[in-house]
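Forwarding the complex inputs:
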Amino acid sequence: MKGSPAIDVRGVTKSFDGKRVVDGVALRVEQGEIYGFLGPNGSGKTTFIRMLCGLLKADGGEGTCLGFDFLTGSREIKNQVGYMTQRFSFYEDLTVLENLDFVARVYDLPDRTGILETVMEEHGLAARRHQLAGGLSGGWKQRLALAACMLHSPRLLLLDEPTAGVDPKARRDFWESIHKLAADGLTVLITTHYMDEAERCHRIGYLSYGRLLTTGTVREVIAASGLHTWSASGPDLQRIVQRLTGKPGVEQIVPFGTTLHISGIDPGKLEEAIRAERKPGTDWQKIPSSLEDVFIHLMDATRDNFP
Amino acid sequence: MRIFNFHRLAAIVVKEFIQMRRDRLTFGMMIGVPLIQLTLFGFAINSNPKNLPTAVVIGDSGPYVETLLHGMKNSEYFQVLERLDEAAAREALTRGSVQFVLTIPPDFSRSFLRGDRPSILLEADATDPAATSNAISTMQELVRSVWNRDLAGPLAGLAGSPGPVNLIIHSKFNPEAITQYNIVPGLMGVVLTMTMVMITALAITRERERGTMENLLSMPTRPLEVMVGKIIPYILVGYIQVSLILVAAALIFHVPMMGSLLLLLGAAFVFIAANLAVGVTFSSVASNQLQAMQMSFFFFLPSLLLSGFMFPFRGMPVWAQYLGEVFPLTHFLRIIRGILLKGNGLAPTLIELGPIALFLFVALIVGVRCYRQTLD
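Prediction (whole assembly, two chains):
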């Protein structure tokens, strides 16, 4: 199986009550790759992941997940996939050890005690083994969930917003673990709203209204957007916003703290539009568009296409 | 800040109404259940049972016997089913297929004509005293007056008390008509039904409400594994309840224990499993814990009222009796009363155990089919 992609699906579609939540998504993720799934809330990320691991039945589509037909092979897929839900979904009235032991039994793992000890050690849970899961803080709950997902040594890890509500330190630790696991050949599909996390992925995809709008490495995605950006810093930025809004060539103005990012597709028109604003006192610079600029642009663009 | 603000109160009231309306099933049950129960129980329940099946052992037929049987039929309390020999009649009484056995001695007519006041024997299955008491007092009245027209001429002197015939009544299985003997074993069935169904009804809905279901579904667990896995621990709980009630029945209420306790424990296993299966099925059908609770209550109430626990089973109209036969409690009541009070053995127990096993089987199938393997 080595060499074939971990996920290779096409035309994946799912509707709820006649509303298309996932609309013809094609996705290919290589083994050992960390693939970041981005997109606004309700764009279909969770639904797509749930279809991959057999929690939801896809209305249409074809392809394979871990070499199994993703429509009919959900039983085999479940055995080799670790799925970490968006909401903590282990038993809060069980201790860390009891939760892990439960998962180990469900997967019918040999030498449970040995595996449990190793996993708890790896994830730093050993000292908290007798603590009730419900009493853990967000970061520790997330560690427990990750440990539980990894117990049966899955080949594919599906992580649905694993770092939501987790502090920066815990997030960094978490990403370190993910990269370590990927280096050992594990494939990871992860959804996130954080740009810094997107940049830690090997490749990313942007989902909006159920459609995969763009995919590639961060650099590729930025390049493909064709977006040009100027930054402005100085006094009275709010005035500049008012004057530039709606001018031809200016497609979006996004405040980043004390600077503004002004972006557009056509570099000539954009420069033309801001020429009048380039006065002393305000510092103007042409900068490479950031991932965030690109995503905001994508979000606005799709909003126009799908009212 | 006022202590009580009517706008704040209104906010809560309005919110409650909105939530009530959102949960269609719950709302429907709040309106529908009382209606169903009113019609169902209003027509079904009758604490004065009539048409009780009666077997007659006739040693002597003749006009006087016919008069008596006719009078019994007219009283509406007795339904003379069959004329059996003694052994068959006894067995029918033990099995519970008849409520009374009436025995007419061989030389009844002759003794009657001679004015010897022949004795007739009415044996009653008195495990449930409430089911027989009215019929027995009617019989006593009947024996005094049914032959009044026949008592002319030389027999005229027999009219009036004490009557021309000596009626002997044997209340079998519970001769002192102690209600506890009937209620306490029955309570075992009721308690098991109530707790077993409710506990498990919450089992899967709780997983769904707490979000742990998503996790469980993403793992390779099969529906039957989840269901049976959720049933087994509570079988143990059920046995703890059984033991507690048996000990209390023996020590506090002095309920006789005629039959084999081992047989009872064996029968209890099927009964407990059937109730748990219903609970798990409710659990996989209901979408939240409130609905699961309502469903179990919807199951529990008719179990209680139509099983013969609260009111004599034979007091209900035939359609309600058929409905009552569906519930495991109905059969378990017959089993436990039979074993404890009548000393029933394996054969009569198995006859009642069959329907419970069938119920368990159907409930499990429905449950497994309704168990959603996906979140759709």
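Chain A has two domains: 7-221, 228-288.
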